[in-house]
User: Which sequence fits this backbone?
C-alpha cells in the first residue's frame, strides 16, 4: 500500500492551522478587541474541507479537527461532533447541488456555516444538555457577521497550502462523490 504523503502533510498542516486559528480566536482577539466576540476562523477551515475534499477524507478530517478543538473550548465533545458533522453535511449537500469556484462562493458558504453552526448548537444544547446554552443573540450575530469577513484571506491561504502540498481539489458539483 502506497502512503500518500501529500495528503498526510496537508492534514498535518490543516491541524496545525486549526490550532493557530483557534488560539488566535481565543486569546489574541480578546487582547485586541476586548469583549467583542471573535470570528470563527476554525469554522472557515472546516468549510474549506467540506467544499474541497472527498467524503471519507473530509469526515475523517472533521473528526480530527473536532478533537483538536476540544482543547480550546468547554463544549462537550458530543456537542462539538454533532454540530460540526451537521454543518459538514449541510455544506456537502449544498456543494453537491450548487458549486462554483472562487472566494465569493467560499465566503457565502462561510456565512451559511456560521449561521447553521449557531442554530444547530443552540437547539442541540436545548435538547441534549441539562444546562442549555444561553441565546446570546447579539454575540451570535456578531460572530455570524465577522466570520465571512475573513473568507477571502482564508480562501487565499488555504489554496496556497493546497498548491504547496500538491493536494488535488474535489470541486465537482452534481451528486455525491465517494
Assistant:
Amino acid at each position: 500500500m502506497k502512503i500518500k504523503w501529500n495528503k498526510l502533510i496537508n492534514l498535518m498542516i490543516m491541524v496545525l492551522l486549526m490550532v493557530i486559528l483557534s488560539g488566535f480566536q481565543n486569546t489574541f482577539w480578546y487582547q485586541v478587541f476586548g469583549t467583542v466576540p471573535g470570528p470563527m476562523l476554525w469554522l472557515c477551515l472546516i468549510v474549506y474541507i467540506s467544499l474541497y475534499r472527498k467524503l471519507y477524507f473530509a469526515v475523517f478530517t472533521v473528526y480530527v479537527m473536532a478533537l483538536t478543538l476540544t482543547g480550546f473550548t468547554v463544549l462537550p465533545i458530543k456537542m462539538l461532533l454533532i454540530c460540526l458533522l451537521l454543518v459538514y453535511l449541510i455544506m456537502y449537500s449544498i456543494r453537491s447541488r450548487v458549486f462554483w469556484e472562487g472566494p465569493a462562493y467560499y465566503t457565502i458558504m462561510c456565512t451559511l456555516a456560521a449561521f447553521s453552526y449557531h442554530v444547530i448548537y443552540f437547539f442541540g444544547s436545548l435538547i441534549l444538555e441539562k444546562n442549555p446554552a444561553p441565546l446570546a443573540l447579539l454575540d451570535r450575530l456578531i460572530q455570524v457577521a465577522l466570520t465571512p469577513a475573513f473568507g477571502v484571506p482564508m480562501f487565499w491561504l488555504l489554496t496556497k497550502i493546497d498548491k504547496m502540498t500538491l493536494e488535488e481539489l474535489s470541486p465537482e458539483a452534481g451528486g455525491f462523490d465517494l
The CA atoms of residues 32 and 138 lie 19 Å apart. The longest helix spans residues 5-33. The chain has one domain: 5-164. The mean pLDDT is 88.
